[in-house]
Design brief:
heterodimer; A: 117 residues; alpha+beta; Alpha-Beta Plaits; two-stranded antiparallel ribbon; two-stranded antiparallel sheet; 3 helices; B: 614 residues; Aldehyde Ferredoxin Oxidoreductase,  A, domain 1; Aldehyde Ferredoxin Oxidoreductase Protein, subunit A, domain 2; Aldehyde Ferredoxin Oxidoreductase Protein, subunit A, domain 3; 3 domains; 6-stranded mixed β-sheet; 25 helices; 19 strands; binds iron/sulfur cluster
């Protein structure tokens, strides 16, 4: 809502896939991959990793070619139907709106670290 | 001005293979809000008396509420049409994700009229509407059709409403299966769809549902979620869905056993939540945007039906396909219910009909089909009938596919005494003999025998309504309660909120959600008044369609036969009791002694145009 100005789960930056007669609900969120295919394929260097390790898209540089959406292995990049620019989860500057609003507290933000630390 | 309405209805004419969008007028929004209200008004305007429910002139509508597709919890959709089972108004509600998708495609509702010459399905992708060939889908079940359309359109995210073979064959209580496996179950909307040669509707919407005042709305949503979390009733639904009601109904003597002859069943608990959890459930599932997640999804893991994926067996199916048939194996009930879901027919009506056939056969009123021992407790006989009804095969299958009213009338007078319905809609699984207010609700419900338009049971058993004492067995003081509950429920059905949501969310919060989303100032009283307006308009529609008010009555079983067991043993709702309740009801509704709305009340409700059915 706050991101797009209205409701439609198709515009959400995360996804829940329903499989096998609704028996399985498989959530997908952007991995912020170490070897990010979306970033690798972008011909205009619109996708960069920021200092916090988040893979971000610069809409000014994006030429709407759609390669990132095609090659993300888990479907986490889409082209916004209004702007035609690529969009993905950038974790809302560290305070994800989805985490804030989820009524069942199903989501939380965790940082991946060394298991021994 | 931004609002949660899309302000457009999509009308599709299958005869002319054309479509157009209609504007939603401010008057319609003001007087009818959405959902049931829109459906009732449009049906009143579009369906003339004598219209054949299965002919080209009937309309089939899928309506959303103003809050459907937003973050307001547990908002659904409804199908409205003229019922082929009852010949009167029908509204049937469905959860899942089909209704929100109608909004995302840019519409407040779909109206389908006409009749396709050959099997088709409708494909709506935002503003693009296509009527596509469905020959290759004809003959598939509800879920197979869903899967095939997704494969064919190469998109798993499309939302689909489909019919199965029962709808194609125009079984009069066929249903519409809505994404995913959520049923607009009652009254035969699936047969109307089948009569239009319409196998399915597939939708994909990329548009946004916007909000008049987002900040205020987000706050109201947070309040709603908090209220849900605080409610012990909601918590009970979260843990066990409606399955726990089996034990409750059994203890209170309201559980149908052997075609409603008895009100208790010694093996009831096997059909309830604990039995289901052990044999079926694996996890929880929810309709889109609902934090309650009352649905329990799983699989049958042992015995003859092993491996079948099954949803929770809702109370109504557990009772009507289980105890009502003297069947206590929940795995078998799950199997029979799943068959109904796949064929696309109402498992409530179907369980009622099989119970009727079993009793009729045991009493020698009808013969057993060859090779079948049609008696209570026989799972194979029940399964035989499910197939026979859905495919309309054999004499008995053909007969029962017309519903219990027509079937019993065709068999003759002794069968009529065994048929349990009101106005042709098979009664639900709450025997009314221990709670006479429920009897009055069945007698007067707009769509026929239904428990959801005024569920009095909990109030009656608590012995209290709005602070005043209430005797569950007496006919006195019931009309006031039933009317209040009916108006309330019709008002809520304009939002199309799930009934379970209102166990937690307060009236004020619903009104606040609506005001914030639409910019239309609303309070709880407006919703109830809208409900009363709809109730009266539907009554006028039903009378115009030929409803005889003398049909405001109960099945003979509840009137003539005292309940043989349970806490209310010995009680029945006599003809005198019915008459008392009916007259009190008519008077408080502002109707005349024959049950016809008086102009004065219609004027007050701003629907004077619906009057003069003298
Ligand atoms: S969008 Fe896809 S490829 Fe890119 S970082 Fe996220 S998960 Fe990896
Ligand atoms: S769509 Fe934009 S961000 Fe994605 S690869 Fe093309 S240019 Fe890069």
């Amino acid at each position: 809502m706050d991101l797009t100005g209205g409701y439609n789960p198709r515009r959400a930056r995360l996804l829940i896939e329903l499989k096998t007669e609704n028996l399985y609900h498989i959530p997908a969120v952007c991995n912020q991959c170490e070897n990010a295919y979306c970033m690798n394929v972008c011909p205009s260097k619109a996708i960069q990793r920021n200092d916090d390790g988040i893979v971000c898209i610069d809409p000014d540089k994006c030429i709407s070619c759609g390669l990132c959406a095609q090659f993300c292995p888990i479907g986490m990049v889409t082209l916004d139907p209004d702007t035609q620019k690529a969009v993905k989860c950038e974790l809302c500057q560290g305070e994800p709106l989805c985490v804030e609003v989820c009524p069942t507290f199903a989501l939380e933000l965790v940082y991946r670290g060394n298991i021994n630390e | 001005m931004s609002s949660a309405y899309t302000n457009k209805l999509l009308m599709i004419d299958l005869s002319r293979e054309s479509f157009e969008t209609l504007p939603v007028s401010n008057d319609l929004k003001k007087d009818f809000i959405g959902g049931k209200g829109f459906g009732a008004k449009l049906l009143y305007d579009m369906v003339l008396p004598e219209t054949d429910p299965l002919g080209k002139d009937n309309v089939l509508m899928f309506m959303t509420g103003p809050l459907t597709g937003t973050m307001a919890p547990a908002m659904r959709g409804c199908v409205v049409t003229k019922s082929p089972l009852t010949g009167i108004f029908l509204d049937s509600y469905f959860g899942g994700s089909f209704a929100p998708e109608i909004k995302y495609a840019g519409y407040d509702g779909l109206i389908i009229k006409g009749q396709a010459k050959k099997p088709v399905y409708i494909w709506i992708n935002d503003d693009t509407v296509e009527i596509r060939d469905a020959w290759h889908l004809w003959g598939t079940d509800t879920l197979k059709a869903n899967e095939q359309i997704k494969t064919e359109l190469n998109d798993d995210t499309i939302k689909i409403a489909s019919i199965g073979q029962a709808g194609e064959n125009q079984v009069l209580f066929a249903l519409v299966c809505c994404e995913y496996n959520r049923q607009a179950g009652r009254g035969g909307a699936g047969a109307v769809m089948g009569s239009k040669n319409l196998k399915a509707i597939a939708i994909k919407g990329s548009k946004l549902v916007s909000i008049h005042d987002p900040k205020r709305f987000t706050k109201a949503c947070a309040t709603a979620f908090k209220e849900l979390e605080a409610s012990p009733d909601v918590e009970a639904f979260r843990v066990a869905g409606t399955a726990a009601s089996v034990d409750f109904a059994n203890e209170t003597g309201l559980l149908p056993h052997k075609n409603y002859q008895n009100g208790t069943f010694s093996k009831a608990s096997k059909l309830a939540d604990k039995g289901q959890a052990r044999h079926l459930w694996l996890g929880s599932a929810a309709c889109m945007g609902c934090p309650i997640r009352c649905s329990k999804i799983g699989a049958i893991r042992s015995g003859k039906y092993k491996g079948t994926i099954t949803d929770i067996i809702e109370y109504e199916s557990a009772a009507l396909m289980g105890s009502n048939l003297d069947i206590s194996d929940i795995r078998a009930v799950a199997h029979l219910t799943k068959l109904c879901d796949l064929y696309g027919m109402d498992s409530m009506s179907c369980g009622n009909l099989i119970g009727f056939a079993m009793e009729a056969c045991e009493k020698g009123v009808i013969p057993s089909p060859q090779g079948i021992s049609l008696c209570f407790g026989n799972i194979d006989a029940a399964e035989y009938l499910v197939h026979a009804i859905a495919n309309r095969t054999g004499e008995l299958g053909m007969l029962l596919s017309k519903g219990v009213k027509q079937a019993s009338e065709e068999i003759g007078i002794t069968a009529i005494d065994l048929a349990v319905h009101a106005k042709g809609l098979e009664s639900p699984a709450w025997g009314p003999r221990g709670v006479s207010g429920m009897g009055l609700a069945y007698m007067t419900t707009d769509r026929g025998g239904c428990h959801q338009r005024g569920f009095t049971v909990t109030y009656e058993l608590s012995g209290e309504w709005k602070g005043a004492p209430l005797d569950p067995l007496s006919p006195k003081g019931k009309a006031r309660m039933v009317i209040a509950l009916q108006n309330y429920s019709a008002g809520r059905d304009t939002l199309v909120n799930c009934d379970f949501g209102s166990y937690g969310i307060s009236d004020d919060t619903y009104a606040e959600l609506l005001s914030a989303a639409t910019g239309q100032k609303t309070d709880p009283a407006t919703l109830v008044e809208t409900g009363e307006r709809i109730w009266n308009l539907v009554r006028c529609f039903n009378l115009a369609q030929g409803l005889d008010p003398k049909k405001d009555t109960l099945a003979p079983r509840f009137v003539n036969e005292p309940l043989p067991d349970g806490p209310s043993k010995g009680h029945r709702i006599s003809a005198e009791d019915m008459d008392y309740m009916r007259q009190e009801y008519y008077q408080l509704r502002g109707w005349d002694k024959k049950g016809i709305p008086l102009d004065k009340r219609l004027n007050q409700l701003r629907i004077a145009y619906a009057g003069h059915h003298k």
